[in-house]
Amino acid sequence: MPKRRRLMITLGALGLSGAAYQMALAQEVQPSPGLSGEAAPPESDGSAAISPENQASLDMIGEVIGALDGEAERNGNNWQFTVEERMLIVVTDASAGRMRIITPIAEASALPPQALERLMQANFDTALDARYAIGQGVVWGAFVHPLDSLTTRDFASGVLQTKSLADTFGTTFTSGVLNYGGGDSGAILENQLNELLEQLERRQAT
Question: What CATH number belongs to 3-205?
Answer without folding.
Answer: 3.30.1460.10
